[in-house]
Specification:
The chain contains 7 helices and no strands. By secondary structure, it is an all-alpha fold.
Amino acid sequence: MALPTRPAAAWLFAVLLLIGAGLTAFFGLSANGYLVPAAMLAIMAALLWLGRAGGLFKAVAIINLISGAVLVLTLAFGDVLGDRKLDVSGVALLVNLLTGGPLLGLLAPGLLLGLRTGKALNQWFNPAAIAA
């Protein structure tokens, strides 16, 4: 059985995630809190490169996007929350950093668009769907 060919989108995003992991790890040498997003970016790059755990990959990207949006919206319009504004934005920041940080948030729209049914990344993560 022939191995499936890795799509160009997988190459591009995996390389971008790996470069982002390296840059984030470099900044993590000065601020240890950035080592977690660097590790998550490296894990996401490996999952994308191998085409494994597509559901986990998609879930992490979605959680990252949602937490980033909550963070920005809370800081911009969270005055109605009063004293809880910083609590909500702090939790959103921690969740965002745990799921790959701001760089994954920038790449996530492209990744999620590529994970739609019939697209190359979706077929990369689900090779059985192609064979059926």
